[in-house]
Amino acid sequence: MTDDVILQVKDLKAYFKLDEGLLKAVDGVSFDLRKGETLGIVGESGSGKSVTNLAIMKLIPTPPGRIAGGEVLFIGKDIFKMSDEEVRKIRGNKISMIFQDPMTCLNPFLRISTQMIETIVLHQGLDKKAAKAKAIEMLKLAGIPAPEKRIDQYPHQFSGGMRQRVMIAMALSCEPEILIADEPTTALDVTIQAQILELIKELSARLGTAVILITHSLGVVAGMCDAICVMYAGRIVERGTADEIFADPKHPYTQGLIKSVPRLDKVSSQRLYSIPGQPPNVINLPDCCPFFPRCERAMDVCKTKYPKIAEIGAKRSVACWLYGEGK
Amino acid sequence: MSRFIVRRLLSVIPTFFIIVTLSFFLIRLAPGGPFSREKKIPPEIMANIMAKYHMDEPLLNQYFRYIGDVLKFDLGPSYRYKDHSVNDLLGAAFPVSIMLGTMALGVALLLGTLVGVTSALNQNKWQDYAAMSVAVLGISVPLFVIGPVLMLVFALQLKWLPTSGWINSRAGWKTVIMPIATLMMPYFAYIARLSRGSIIEVLRSDYVRTARAKGLKERVVIAKHVLKGGMLPIVTYLGPAFSGIIIGSLAVEQIFVIPGIGKIFVQSALNRDYTVIMGEVIVYSLILIAANFVVDILYGLLDPRISYK
Amino acid sequence: MPLLDKKTDKAVNEFNQYVKPVSLWADAWKRLRRNKMAVLGMWIVGAYLVVTFGASVLPFHSYTEQQMLHVNLPPSLKPAGVVALGEHEKRRVDLKEAIERSGRSDLKTDLERVDAEIIQLKGDMDVNPVHKRVYILGTDYLGRDMLARTIYGGQISIMIGLIGTLTAAFIGIVLGSLGGYLGGWVDNLIGRFVDLMYSLPYMLIVIIIMSMLPTGSNSIFVLYLAIAMISWLTISRVVRGQIISLKNSEFVEAAKSMGASSNRIIFRHLLPNSLGIIIIYSTLQFPSFIMNESFLSFLGLGVSAPQASWGTLVSEGVQGMQLYPWRLLVPAVAMTVFLFAMNFLGDGLRDALDPQSKNRS
Question: Is the pLDDT of residue B106 over 90?
């Protein structure tokens, strides 16, 4: 492991026991994250991207879910082997998370100051006064006007975009190594989305924080990320730098995703492309490539075995029978 | 905040007037009532009533006179007992019922939340199943079954507790145990179920997930983040709970022979003592209105989204 | 879009896995069946319904016949004559002890009376067929069979509960859907009315109404009307909420765009989708109805003699409970078990029909 890799996820598996059967939400996910890097995880709903990140922080509700295998090495130590106490010290402190819907993610019954101060006091040992000062500073950085006054307000007094800024300020208040942003802009207006993404980019650069950005939108990823992982049905189907993936997507799914993005420079009389079919129901999935029903280039082997992962470059891999062995 | 209080007060007044008006006209229409001139009642009482209610005046005048009396806290003479006024009969009994009701509600609230929260935190384990089975029992068994059965076991068979009476009797504070245990049962059970459901829902909420993601200890998450929001439905329930306890006390006071307004109310209903019934309705309405009012204010204080409307 | 497996003709997804179509009701039924307590509740309620409504054809004693020879007999499998004799003998022994302790002369007359009764009973035993009866659950203070009384009491209580719930549901559905669908001033008016009714101490009003009735009139009708009057409130609110949330949904838009009339939309589309929640609330309302009615009857303001509901029976039982505890316990247990079962069933239905509880761990 090279020096600046701060997070190594190896073969992570998270399963859920449901009435209908075993849901393998995450079934063997591996990726690396370097210091200060921005990694994008792209996938449709149900692809397992959110669960991956909850699993990293051991936040999966343990009935009905469980970690079924794998390692998560944070600066060399395996999170899955840590005690609850040790994991708690990391959460909010070294690894922070922000979630999709800022309306519901902040406690409506507590003031912003309370919610921000408790993290700072807990992890940085400051007293309440110092913690409040720090919190106000973070709010200012996050672009909240008149933070000294607004910090004592309640969440419902903020607009959606403002609330997300508060979430970001709160998450970065302990200057974590990693910020995990789970669809931070999906619930926001389009005009605000760009602002929030810009904010994340700016703050993470300033503080040297690595970012894992989870999204279903390639557009979001294009502007922000150094590296990209594409997920489908609980597994990573393609990995690479942003440039590589956009310039030369290998996996048929990735190709389909890129084709689906409406482009301004294309002729407008062309129909919008969308990948045919539906994402699969991943309960009791048989051993095959889960994308084959929708794949234009599916072969017989795709129906019977999950593809072996082909490493095609330094940081590049694809899980598809078209590359490596199947060719 | 004060605008909120004033608004609530204003909405309460029409309800009160409707209740008073309803009881006024219901009594007047009752067959065999004092105003139907069919029943034969002792002339002294008839004289009282005639004098008090000015029966020769037009109905509307009588109505306004009645409202005036009520506002002066004068509830008129009893229809059955010629020497007593309604105020006499109710005055001594009123504090007894309030005490009984408040104690029962307090116990129900305390025990109910305790049990409910414990159940929610131990979902699907034995504490949960045991507690919820007791809760269903509490809701299913009627008050007037619990009371006598308790009396049968603890007073008549085991002779640990007195069968009847109130604090001022020889048995003293022991008399309150069974009445309170009986009265609080269905409300304790409901509060236990309510708080369990509410806490479970809050435990699954996004903001609790955020709290955990920040690395807070589970104990802190529960005490600081879960309880506040989780308890809110309980506050809303307090209004109807208080209302129910008042009704329940009617039976409990009968069973355990407690000198409260409930006992008087039932007796007057059976005796057709109409003036007392009317007075009771007014007293009860005032109690309920006050209780609901307090609950509303409490809720407004606890939920920050409300006060700032 | 499920494909069909060529061999078995069953629905199959793209991975060649069989796909079972699951409708809302089938799903709910499956979940209900898995809830053991709810199933138990269902059986118990069913048993009660069969017994109470089949009572006239089943071999029970009459519930009105007063048999003064068999007053206050405890539950027993022995014939009544033997049991009565036993009770008399016991009383004789108690009296003798009391006389020895206190020497009161009035007790002596009592003793003479008991002796006379014993002699008469012994003579009567083989002659009068009445003494061959078995009162499995004992008798009350007028010699009426407790089992029969409890069963008929159940008839009254359950009937009132059923009719009341249906009435409340009907009124609630009508007003709720009118308000929810039409909105505007109709909704406002109904809403205000509901708020008003909610804030009134309705139980008090019911008690007043019941006390207004001249004694001896047919109180059952007024009773259930009075209780039904306030029970529809919750259902109307719930239905209104459902209709409002459904009326803006896509399938309603589709129906409207095809020219469906309001009536059709309400009856064919909105109400059937609200059925689940209506059932849930009605099932929870049913035991509450029975509780209200028996509460009133217990106070003496409900069903009047000669009819008796469970509440009346408990009230009568309380009066004699020190000496004759079965008179209290028989109707009390019967009623409690029924309500218990109903509540479990109601809970089970709620869990089964409420999609949010799916996969609740």
Answer: yes
Residues in chain C: 361
Mean pLDDT of chain C: 78
Is B65 an 8 Å CB contact of chain C?
no
pLDDT for A197-215, tens place per residue?
999 999 988 988 999 999 9
The per-residue pLDDT for range C286-331, each reduced to its tens digit, is 888 888 888 888 887 777 767 788 888 888 888 888 888 888 888 9
**Within-domain flag for B61:** no
How many folded domains does chain B comprise?
1
Q: How far apart are CA B120 and CA B116, in angstroms?
A: 6
Domain hosting B225: range is 86-302
Residue B29's pLDDT is what?
67
Q: What is the ipTM of this complex?
A: 0.84
Instruction: Please determine, for residue C9, whether its predicted confidence score (pLDDT) is greater than 70.
Output: no
B32 touching chain C per CB within 8 A? yes
Give domain limits for chain C.
45-55+144-357, 76-132
How many angstroms separate the CA of residue B214 from the nearest CA in chain A?
Answer: 4
With beta carbons less than 8 A apart as the criterion, state whether B100 and B256 touch. Answer: no
8 Å CB contact of C15 and A285? yes
Percent of chain C with pLDDT over 70: 86
User: Quick check: A281 and C13 CB within 8 A?
Assistant: yes
Global pTM? 0.81
Residues 6 or more apart whose Cβ sits within 8 Å of residue C58: C51
Domain C45-55+144-357 has CATH 3.40.50.12780: no
The pair of three-digit structure tokens given for residue A194, joined into one six-digit string: 């760009």
Q: Which partners does chain C have (≥3 C-beta pairs < 8 Å)?
A: A, B
Measured between alpha carbons, how far is A229 from A220 in angstroms, rounded to an integer? 13
**Residue type at A57?**
M
Measured CA distances, A59 to A231, B229, B301 (Å): 20, 21, 33
**B27, part of any domain:** no
Contacts of C13 in chain A (CB under 8 A): 280-281
Question: Is residue B150 one of the residues assigned to a domain?
Answer: yes
Bridge-based pairing of strands A309-311 and A317-319 is antiparallel
DSSP B161-229: S-SS--TTSTTGGGGGHHHHHHHHHHHHHHHHHHHHHHHHHHHTSHHHHHHHHTT--HHHIIIIIIHHH
Which of C299, C301, C330, C347 to mutate: most B Cβ within 10 Å?
C299
The C-alpha of B270 sits at a distance from chain C's nearest C-alpha, in angstroms, of 7
pLDDT under 50: residue ranges of chain A: 1, 326-327
Query: Which chains are within 8 Å of B by 3+ CB pairs?
Result: A, C
Name the band, by pLDDT with cuts 50, 70 and 90, for residue B116.
Answer: very high
Instruction: Give the tens place of pLDDT for each residue, B29-67.
Output: 665 555 554 456 667 766 666 666 666 667 777 777 777
User: What's the pLDDT score for residue B258?
Assistant: 86
Residues A75/A79/A84/A85 CA torsion (nearest 10 deg): -10
> Which pLDDT score is estimated for C7?
59
**Of B57-71, C207-221, C241-255, where does mean pLDDT reach its minimum?**
C207-221
Phi, psi of B199 (to 5 degrees): -65, -40
Close Cβ partners of B3 (under 8 Å, ≥ 6 residues apart): none
Distance from CA of B224 to the nearest CA of A (A): 9
- CATH number of the domain encompassing residue B225: 1.10.3720.10
* d(C-alpha C83, C-alpha C73), whole Å: 7
Which chain B residue has the Cα nearest residue A123?
Answer: B215
**Strand A65-74, strand A77-78: pairing:** antiparallel
Is A64 in Cβ contact with C361 (below 8 Å)?
yes
Residue B37 resides in a domain: no
Q: Report the percentage of chain A scoring pLDDT > 70.
A: 96
